[in-house]
């Protein structure tokens, strides 16, 4: 619905129920009436004179947008828990408040992270491809063997809401040790599991599964690079469900091709989605079906 002189602009079409409070007051809301992101030029035009802006992570909210909005803008809200697309510095300079949506997706992202971890470590997508393209010949004992969670060490980079929810879900799989790296110890999140706070390098050295759940900040930008991959086990599984910018994708590609790590599962990339000819999308899964000692089938007598 378009009003003259809108007070608030939303950068995507939303169900009216999304804004019960705004709808019940006499607040004029103009929506970008599409499921596609608002083009930058339109955004710059639409924000002029508004008091509130509701955006998604597809909109970069920087000095240019804030200047286009002008001094009337009092609050920016983003429909995301991550707010790396919003310049906090520019908001602070102008005294504009920022709203976000923590916890809305914690359970969903934790489930997705576990699904991605299992699919990657147990090579599910590769196996489905092989079944469809005729690559599944006769049964071979070591073919498509992956890596198991039982007795493993899982390292979480960023033990926030999602990281803790991932750990809670992985615990029943028989994980032996949980490690985490963060800006400091998080006993509120770690005690129940329990998980040990360690430097990131130690986490990389000891983990069979490295799961990235941290916020994207200037400090975490590109933190998963060759220096980290080179410390990891060559049987390690790397999972990222935080933000693509946390990973140096060229370094990840090299680590996968060179067998420095076994496989990676990425829910987030830079850009999103990756162009379909991106080298990472050409990789099946790196590393041979090397069995870890814990996976060896020790011979037992049946009769
Ligand atoms: N894949 C998706 O669809 C999806 C959905 C929601 C959120 N996310 C991402 O997940 C992230 C985490 O969400 P959350 O709700 O758990 O947030 P959170 O704020 O509870 O957790 C973020 C954690 O990252 C840690 N962190 C920040 N800087 C760090 C650093 N330099 N080194 C190590 N750790 C650091 C924080 O201390 C905190 O523990 C979000 O920031 C967002 O980017 C992704």
From TrEMBL:
Residues 114-286 form the D-isomer specific 2-hydroxyacid dehydrogenase NAD-binding domain. InterPro entries: D-isomer_2-hydroxyacid_DH, D-isomer_DH_CS, D-isomer_DH_NAD-bd, NAD(P)-bd_dom_sf. Gene3D superfamilies: NAD(P)-binding Rossmann-like Domain (3.40.50.720). It holds the Pfam family 2-Hacid_dh_C. GO terms for molecular function: glyoxylate reductase (NADPH) activity; hydroxypyruvate reductase (NADH) activity; NAD binding. GO terms for cellular component: cytosol. The keyword Oxidoreductase applies. It comes from the Eukaryota. The keyword Repeat does not apply. Keywords: Oxidoreductase. PANTHER family: 2-HYDROXYACID DEHYDROGENASE-RELATED, GLYOXYLATE REDUCTASE_HYDROXYPYRUVATE REDUCTASE B. This is D-isomer specific 2-hydroxyacid dehydrogenase NAD-binding domain-containing protein. It comes from Chrysemys picta bellii.
């Amino acid at each position: 619905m378009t009003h003259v002189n809108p007070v608030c602009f939303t950068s995507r079409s939303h169900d009216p129920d999304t804004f019960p409070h705004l709808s019940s007051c006499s607040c004029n809301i103009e929506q970008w009436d599409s499921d596609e992101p608002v083009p930058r030029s339109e955004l710059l035009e639409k924000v002029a004179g508004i008091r509130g802006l509701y955006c998604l992570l597809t909109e970069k909210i920087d000095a240019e947008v804030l200047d286009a909005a002008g001094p009337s803008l009092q609050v920016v809200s983003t429909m995301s828990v991550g707010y790396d697309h919003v310049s906090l510095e520019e908001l602070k300079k102008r005294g504009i408040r920022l709203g976000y949506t923590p916890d809305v997706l914690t359970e969903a992202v934790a489930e997705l992270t576990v699904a991605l971890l299992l699919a990657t470590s147990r090579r599910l997508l590769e196996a489905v491809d092989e079944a469809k393209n005729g690559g599944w010949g006769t049964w071979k004992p070591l073919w498509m063997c992956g890596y198991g969670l039982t007795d493993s060490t899982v390292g979480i980079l960023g033990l926030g809401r999602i990281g803790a929810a991932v750990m809670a879900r992985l615990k029943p799989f028989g994980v032996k040790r949980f490690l985490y790296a963060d800006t400091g110890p998080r006993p509120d999140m770690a005690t129940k599991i329990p998980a040990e706070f360690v430097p990131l390098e130690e986490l990389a050295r000891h983990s069979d599964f490295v799961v990235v759940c941290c916020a994207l900040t200037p400090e975490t930008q590109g933190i998963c690079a060759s220096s980290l991959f080179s410390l990891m086990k060559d049987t390690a599984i790397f999972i990222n469900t935080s933000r693509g910018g946390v990973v140096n994708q060229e370094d990840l590609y090299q680590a996968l091709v060179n067998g420095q790590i076994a496989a990676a599962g990425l829910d987030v990339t830079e850009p999103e989605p990756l162009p379909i000819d991106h080298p990472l999308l050409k990789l099946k899964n790196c590393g041979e079906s090397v069995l870890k000692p814990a996976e060896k089938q020790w011979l037992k007598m049946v009769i």
